[in-house]
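Saturday, quiet lab. Running sequence design on the structure tokens for the scaffold JK sent over.
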């Protein structure tokens, strides 16, 4: 994926996390949230690894594991609310940490003869 659009998956996750703060969501919403969040953070982990940002890749990988829809982590609603807020911060940080690096790598590749 082009560095120009690397922020779109995070934006989707951020919006879904904000909507998840609504306590009247059906259970199915949280299942969908797990699938999408896990997939996005697996992708971001891969992307951070290809950019040699190993420490941040670990943060992203652990986040993907927490939202794993197959081997689920069972927590109470209050703890999930805190984790969702932390996930929003991680998603924003990934935009800041991955997007500029991705763009500079693309620009360097474009400037090669």
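Result came back. Writing it out in full:
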């Amino acid at each position: 994926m082009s560095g120009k659009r690397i922020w779109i998956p995070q934006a989707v996750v951020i919006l879904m996390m904000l909507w998840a703060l609504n306590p009247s969501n059906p259970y199915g919403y949280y299942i969908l949230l797990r699938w999408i969040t896990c997939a996005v953070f697996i992708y971001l982990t891969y992307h951070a690894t290809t950019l040699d940002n190993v420490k941040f890749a670990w943060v992203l990988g652990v986040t993907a594991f927490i939202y794993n829809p197959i081997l689920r982590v069972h927590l109470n609603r209050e703890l999930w609310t805190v984790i969702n807020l932390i996930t929003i911060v991680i998603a924003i940080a990934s935009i800041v940490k991955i997007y500029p690096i991705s763009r500079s790598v693309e620009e360097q590749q474009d400037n090669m003869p």
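Notes for JK: The mean pLDDT is 87. The two ends are 22 Å apart (CA to CA). Ask whether to fix the surface positions before the next round.
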